[in-house]
Design brief:
Monooxygenase, elongated, homodimer, mainly alpha, 4 helices, about 100 residues
């Protein structure tokens, strides 16, 4: 039972692992230092885990990776949105200075 | 065999998932937008996975999580180092301006 709790805790912590990063992106609206390559690489890895879980018909692997993939999608969306927005703001600032 | 390749590819991608973030930290020397809570949460989750893998005596779970944990440790170290360094630099800049 003790080991099951450790396993479930581990699964929960990693499943929602990118949630703090998404919250930070929302709060600060800055994403410059975040690696988009990390988000894409982990996203692709989690997607393949999801396929592998479907192949094994293991509902725990499917659920954990589906939730994780959803948060990574949100993180990638936030990254692209704020990156574009901040670049546009910089252009406006430069033009105002001129 | 096809599904084994998918499983191993998934494991490799997620195992080295934080490497692009560490490389970006090294290159830019800026970490302000990275969530330290994300690194600590995933780090703790991976550590518990490692313990769980040791309990199951599953060498693949142990190896994958040990490598992942090592890269997360490097990421946390880089975060703390550059965060401190950049704050010190800001203090120096403020004093020079005065």
């Amino acid at each position: 039972m003790k080991w099951e709790i450790i396993g479930y805790t581990a699964a929960c912590l990693t499943m929602f692992g990118f949630v703090p990063q998404v919250i930070k992106m929302f709060r600060t609206k800055h994403v410059k230092d975040v690696s988009i390559l990390m988000l894409c690489q982990v996203g692709l890895g989690i997607f393949l885990w999801l396929l592998y879980g479907m192949h094994l018909r293991n509902s725990i692997i499917i659920l954990a990776n589906a939730v994780n993939l959803a948060t990574i999608f949100v993180a990638i969306f936030c990254y692209c949105y704020y990156r574009r927005r901040n670049k546009a703001l910089e252009v406006v600032k430069t033009q105002v200075r001129k």
